[in-house]
Amino acid sequence: MVSLRLAVPADVPALTALVRGAYEHYVPRIGREPAPMTDDYAEVVRRGHTWVAERAGIAVGMLVLVPETDHLLLENIAVRADAQGGGIGRLLLVQAESEAVRLGFVEVRLYTNAAMTENIAYYQRHGYVEIHRAGNDGFSRVFFSKVL
Q: Model's pTM, two decimal places?
């Protein structure tokens, strides 16, 4: 069984390792490390709005949310490589949408790298609509929105 909770500073090493493992297979496709691999997770956790999915006390997924003025930004969602395909990503998406409603937002936005084609299809299957594509921070990104 997977449970969700807010991240605490003690989670930083596990979250950093989780993200590296979840994204490392994209490095050859993109030509460099995806942005989440370079984030400072001590700072990310300090800001709050970071959730950990755990199974038997082990971090198997994470979710980073950023409240913006008029929407909730889903900044990062990652599932441990050996736990992918088991519904953890969907659980984290539902958490993001629930948290958006709790915070008074009616929209969740997110973006992914254009080279992460499986992510693009995944978000579309879960009701996210592509709103535009653009270069951002040196990456080719696809931006999505879901009105709740």
A: 0.95
Mean pLDDT of the chain: 97
Residue 110, number of CB atoms within 10 A of its CB: 23
Element (H, E) at 140: strand 139-147
pLDDT score of 135 more than 90: yes
| Pairing outcome for strands 2-6 and 50-55 | antiparallel
Q: How far apart are CA 37 and CA 21, in angstroms?
A: 9
- At residue 46, what is the residue type? R
The backbone region for 31, taken as left when phi is positive above 0, alpha when psi lies in -120 to 50, beta otherwise, is: left
| Residue 30's CATH number | 3.40.630.30
Which domain, by its residues, includes 8? 2-147
Q: How many domains does the chain have?
A: 1
